[in-house]
Amino acid sequence: MSSQPDGLSLGQRAAAFRRSIRERLAALTSRHSRYRRLFREEDGTLTPDAAAFFAEIAKRGRVHDSSFHTDPREHARREGARELALYLMSGLELDGAKLAALTRQLREHEDD
Fold first, then answer.
1. Given 22, 81, 92, 106, which is the most exposed site by the fewest CB atoms within 10 A?
2. What is the mean pLDDT of residues 51-60?
């Protein structure tokens, strides 16, 4: 009989923990794969539409700006938008430098 409060032995708990980690890793890998198929060209570059989409997401999510606001509700809304933008960008491994370069590139081609 187990002395653990949930009735599982230490070995069973360790196995469940390892299984949980494998499932999370598979979900993360799957998300990255889906985002790559959806937003990237065969050569790995972002499609023009994806580039515009992520530039807009970064702008609306205030990725490069402070999300602070004196109204707590507005601050919470801004933080939520920022969190979502960063989450979506992480699916394509877009960091700040890559996003800044992408934004510059889009600005240069806006007149085309």
1. 22
2. 88
DSSP string, 7-27: S--HHHHHHHHHHHHHHHHHH
Residue type, 57: I
Domains of the chain, residue spans: 10-108
Q: Please give the Cα distance from 54 to 58 (Å, whole number).
A: 6
Separation of alpha carbons 74 and 85, rounded Å: 17
The pTM assigned to this predicted structure is 0.64
For residue 67, how many other CB atoms are within 10 A of its CB? 17
User: pLDDT tens digit string along 30-54?
Assistant: 888 888 888 999 898 889 899 889 8
Coil, helix or strand at residue 47: coil
Is the dihedral angle over the CA atoms 38, 44, 48, 51 positive or is it negative?
positive
Q: Point out which residues pair with 2 in neighbouring strands.
A: none
Tokens of 17: 């923990």
